[in-house]
């Protein structure tokens, strides 16, 4: 026997087979079960199933009874090669013979079944193993726990896990990981964490799969600090981070508002070449959506498309959310259609589409969309129901609401939903007032938002009886004022003032009032719409209420101002002041400004005095308004006293304050004080703007201080302030008035270098400069240049030339220019007529003057100079009747006669 075993000891099955045959044929040896077992194992290891089965039958035929080892060898062979049907048949036969198998054999069979995901068979075999009293080992528990979890028998799995630990078998990391994942999916977060702590206490390093489960747990539990701590631990332990974990990290960053960190993580995944899963792309897109950045979310979606990432149903849902947020209706509708091809759209996506239609004010399309949803029998959730009901209420679709609500209440999950039940009781049951009498409906059982929707419904249906009942119920619920405020605000946004009035009237009739902010908004809208009477009615209804405060008074004052009633605004301000209301500096500023712009300077001054007398707290803007108002009123001394009062109260001036004061002192011809204000602003550390510089430059120019003006203009540019069109015009006009045409030309060149184009007024200043320095040809060339540039000259441009020629007695040139003006199609104005007549009268051209007057007398408006000049030249020519006729006309028009005109005043006396 020993020699036979030696013969069968080679490791290759072919040598064993050869030796085995040799033994049988030449040695006439009758093998024992041990020899047969060795041969069975050799055949089984290389998958010679048929030889194995033949050898086993041979063993039986020669009367050799198989033991547990031989049977186990056969079972392991079947298990190894996945012959599960044969394995189970053989196992049944073994059981009938009463042979008890070893733990190792059971492990082999259990492992084989599990590899093919035959978890039910694993569990059955495990139970038989336990019944037979075969002691499981660590491997057995590992396999069985896995199948129990996969088979949905989690309680048994945890029971087996506890047994395993009691037997002092240390579970593998994979077992811990599987059980942690199971607890996480079931929402048993603390149990999952306890398992993790148990695992770590045994020194087991978690795998990335375990970490992924824990990160999911922390994410769902909003324990983001622990999630980030775990990620740090993974880096420390050099645990490989896969795409799933990166995806979770992106979601966590998004929840924490760390949007840029999420984006950087996404880019890092891409750079590492790990970006392949649709879920990661969509996680990043959702983070951008949560941050309100639809464009970046859409960039992620486009990246998916460009990389041919497969679009799941969820991808279409997220894409739709992107298009809805970006208000891209066409793309949203196309995406919704694509989603519908994957199956019935979810209620959330339907709701997204409806919200987009509402946002774009496409009520008609929204209603058609709802009809389609109803035809497709989409299952409504509460949010979709709310949105649809909101549209139905706005459109007064009572029957549709009733039908939809009846369908909703058939779902048991909504039997305790206050919003839906409120609609059902209001529309589908008996009137709520009857239910209330019976005690079946208490105000705390009704949803205030639903009651607000019902108010809108009955307003649209003009059902004022039900409106009143719903309003009474609403006023008894908590948060009723916020609901009313929201409803009125919606009406105001839609410009539906009729419903605003109807609802407010009902509220007042019930002895209540909406909050001050809402009343103020209503008054403000009426004021904006120039509906003063309606604004006054709303104000009058609450004016005597002790709750009528600052907001309402300020809104009514605004309404008066917008409707051009500054005195009424002033009167109401005084009334509020007497009642002890401090309406604030802004209200004072508005009233003063409106009084000033309407020429009510005395009233504006009185109001300023009033605010000073009562020591009202004013801000810089209010003082600026006061100073500017008195500047426009011409009360310059009072304007400066306001500034002094401002300083005495410790209110800091702004650059606008100093700008206005420069104008105050400049207009009062106190140029030194204007310069002082400018320097004070500069020394105070304020950034002087172009307006401050040019304001002072203007007054330098008016005072004839052109050098100082130019110096300040240069300083402004040195300070880095580039002159704008207005600044250049001021400087050009100043030099043009003095006839300094070289300086004007230089400024125009500089202006053009700075990108400013010449306009009508710039050309006017240039012509003025040329005529002042007697450069008539250049002046005429300038008018020609205007025409070439497509800028039509006006009468004012020609008048400068006419006046220049007339002033020096070049009347033939003046007449030529006048004819050109007429030919151009320009209607001469009074200044043009005056310039021509002045030339004729000053140089004694009486006949020409008479002819000109008689040409224009029917078209020219009655004018003191023109008519006086005509009288003088008629008298000079001895035409007294004509002179008297013109003088009579002047008397009839109430036009005074100019006695001091002299014919030939500029004629040279020989």
From TrEMBL:
Domain PROP1-like PPR intervals: 220-334
Pfam families cross-referenced by the UniProt entry: PPR (PF01535), PPR_2 (PF13041), PPR_3 (PF13812), PPR_long (PF17177)
Classification via InterPro entries: PPR_rpt (IPR002885), PROP1-like_PPR_dom (IPR033443), TPR-like_helical_dom_sf (IPR011990)
Annotated Gene3D superfamilies: Tetratricopeptide repeat domain
Record keyword Secreted present: no
PPR repeat segments: 32-66, 102-136, 137-171, 172-206, 207-241, 242-276, 549-583, 619-653, 654-688, 689-723, 724-758, 759-793, 794-828
SUPFAM superfamilies with a match to the protein in the record: HCP-like
Protein name: PROP1-like PPR domain-containing protein
Organism: Gossypium trilobum
């Amino acid at each position: 026997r020993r020699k036979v075993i030696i013969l069968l000891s080679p490791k290759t099955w072919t040598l064993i087979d050869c030796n085995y045959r040799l033994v049988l044929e030449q040695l006439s040896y009758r093998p024992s079960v041990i020899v047969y077992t060795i041969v069975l194992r050799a055949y089984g290891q290389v998958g010679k199933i048929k030889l194995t089965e033949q050898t086993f039958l041979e063993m039986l035929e020669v009367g050799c009874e198989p033991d547990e080892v031989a049977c186990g060898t056969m079972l392991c062979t079947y298990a190894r090669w996945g012959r599960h049907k044969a394995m189970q048949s053989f196992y049944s036969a073994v059981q009938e013979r009463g042979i008890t198998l070893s733990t190792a054999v059971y492990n082999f069979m259990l492992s084989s079944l599990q590899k093919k995901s035959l978890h039910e068979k694993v569990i059955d075999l495990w139970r038989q193993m336990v019944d037979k009293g075969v002691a499981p080992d660590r491997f057995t528990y590992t396999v069985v726990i896995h199948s129990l979890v996969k088979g949905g028998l989690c309680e048994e799995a945890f029971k087996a896990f506890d047994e395993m630990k009691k037997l002092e078998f240390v579970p593998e990391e994979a077992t811990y990981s599987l059980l942690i994942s199971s607890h996480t999916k079931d929402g048993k977060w603390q149990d999952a964490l306890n398992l993790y702590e148990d695992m770590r206490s045994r020194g087991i390093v978690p795998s990335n799969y375990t970490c992924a489960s824990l990160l999911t747990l922390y994410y769902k539990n909003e324990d983001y600090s622990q999630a980030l701590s775990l990620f740090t631990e993974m880096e420390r332990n050099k645990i490989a981070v896969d795409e799933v974990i990166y995806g979770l990290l992106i979601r966590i960053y998004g929840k924490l508002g760390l949007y840029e960190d999420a984006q950087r993580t996404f880019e890092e995944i891409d750079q590492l070449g790990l970006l392949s899963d649709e879920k990661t792309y969509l996680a990043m897109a959702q983070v951008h959506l949560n941050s309100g950045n639809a464009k970046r979310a859409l960039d992620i979606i486009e990246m998916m498309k460009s990389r041919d990432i497969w679009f799941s149903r969820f991808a279409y849902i997220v894409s739709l959310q992107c298009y809805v947020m970006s208000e891209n209706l066409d793309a949203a509708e196309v995406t919704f259609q694509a989603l519908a091809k994957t199956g019935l759209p979810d209620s959330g996506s339907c709701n997204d589409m409806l919200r987009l239609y509402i946002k774009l004010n496409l009520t008609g399309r929204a209603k058609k969309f709802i009809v389609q949803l109803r035809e497709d029998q989409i299952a409504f959730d509460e949010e979709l129901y709310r949105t649809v009901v909101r549209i139905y209420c706005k459109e007064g679709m009572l029957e549709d609401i009733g039908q939809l609500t009846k369908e909703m209440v058939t779902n048991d999950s909504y039997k305790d939903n206050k919003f839906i039940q409120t609609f059902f009781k209001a529309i589908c049951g008996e009137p709520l007032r009857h239910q209330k009498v019976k005690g079946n409906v208490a105000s705390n059982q009704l949803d205030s938002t639903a009651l607000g929707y019902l108010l809108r419904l009955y307003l649209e249906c003009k059902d004022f009886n039900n409106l009143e009942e719903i309003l009474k119920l609403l006023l008894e619920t908590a948060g009723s004022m916020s609901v009313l405020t929201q409803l009125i605000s919606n009406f105001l946004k839609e410009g539906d003032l009729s419903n605003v009035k109807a609802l407010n009237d009902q509220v007042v009739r019930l002895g209540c009032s909406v909050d001050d902010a809402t009343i103020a908004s209503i008054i403000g809208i009426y004021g904006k719409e120039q509906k003063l009477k309606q604004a006054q009615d709303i104000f009058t209804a609450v004016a005597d209420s002790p709750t009528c405060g600052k907001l309402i008074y300020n809104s009514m004052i605004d309404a008066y101002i917008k409707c051009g009633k500054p005195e009424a605004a002033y009167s109401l301000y005084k009334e509020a002041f007497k009642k002890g209301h401090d309406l604030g500096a802004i209200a004072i500023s508005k009233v003063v400004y409106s009084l000033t712009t309407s020429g009510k300077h005395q009233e504006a001054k009185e109001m300023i005095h009033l605010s000073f007398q009562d020591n009202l707290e004013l801000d810089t803007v209010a003082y600026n308004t006061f100073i500017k108002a008195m500047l426009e009123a011409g009360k310059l001394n009072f304007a400066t006293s306001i500034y002094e009062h401002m300083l005495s109260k410790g209110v800091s001036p702004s650059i606008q304050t100093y700008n206005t004061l420069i104008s105050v002192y400049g207009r009062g011809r106190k140029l030194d004080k204007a310069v002082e204000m400018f320097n004070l602003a500069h020394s105070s550390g304020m950034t002087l703007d172009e307006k401050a510089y040019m304001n002072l430059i203007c007054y330098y120019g008016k005072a004839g201080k052109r050098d100082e003006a130019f110096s300040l203009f240069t300083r402004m540019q040195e300070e880095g302030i580039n002159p704008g069109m207005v600044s250049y015009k001021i400087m050009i006009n100043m030099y043009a008035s003095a006839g300094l045409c070289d300086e004007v030309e230089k400024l125009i060149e500089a202006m053009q270098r700075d990108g400013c184009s010449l306009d009508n007024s710039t050309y006017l200043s240039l012509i003025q400069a040329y005529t002042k320095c007697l450069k008539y040809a250049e002046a005429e060339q300038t008018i020609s240049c205007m025409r070439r540039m497509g800028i039509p000259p006006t009468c004012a441009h020609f008048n400068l030339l006419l006046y220049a020629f007339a002033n020096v007695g070049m009347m033939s040139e003046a007449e030529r220019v006048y004819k050109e003006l007429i030919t151009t199609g320009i209607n001469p104005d009074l200044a043009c007529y005056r310039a021509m007549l002045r030339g004729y009268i000053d140089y004694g051209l009486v006949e020409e003057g008479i002819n000109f007057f008689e040409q224009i007398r029917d078209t020219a408006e009655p004018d003191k100079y023109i008519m006086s000049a005509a009288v003088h030249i008629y008298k000079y020519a001895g035409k007294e009747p004509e002179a008297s006729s013109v003088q009579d006309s002047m008397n009839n028009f109430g036009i005074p006669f100019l006695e001091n005109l002299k014919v030939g005043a500029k004629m040279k006396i020989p």
